[in-house]
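Second opinion, please. Please look over this fold, written as tokens:

===
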Amino acid sequence: LAWLFAALLLSSCSSVRIEDYRGQQPVLDLREYFNGRITAWGQFQDRSGRVIKRFTVDMTGSWQGDEGRLDEHFRYDDGSTETRIWYLTRHADGRYTGRAADVVGTAEGRAEGPALEWSYVLALPVDGKVYHVKFHDWMWLHDAQTLVNRARMSKFGIHLGEVTLFFRKQAADAGTGEK
């Protein structure tokens, strides 16, 4: 019984690695998925799990080879809006990098199979102050139109909350984009 408990404890401590998704289908290619019109909806939950804010996002993506631009337009449940423009680069080894005006430094990620692991620091305005908050995202492609994103937010290693986001690619744009 002690061995079984130890094995369960050790397996619960291991973290998911992007390599765990290698060879799985469908394969997530950001150049294809984030090309055209995408709609998303999501929510921010504090560390207790309570939903603090809900939002929708209208996006338009375009790519020229391995360089992409993703325009995001957020509408929050309190009536506020926000715009973010990502400039993305696909690298030959499956890595992606990205920049945006409110991203501190460079976002970095890697795709394997249907998954993308993506990390960055966001300059996040809250009540008149700006905080640099680390985001660690996992995205999973379910089919040509559906992508799910779960982002953990932290500051100084302290868990602040999570963002859950569901993406839906317009059917006419699914799988037809230029790479």
User: Anything to note?
Assistant: Helices lie at 2-13, 30-33. The beta strands are 36-46, 51-64, 67-76, 81-90, 95-99, 103-112, 115-126, 129-141, 146-155, 158-169.
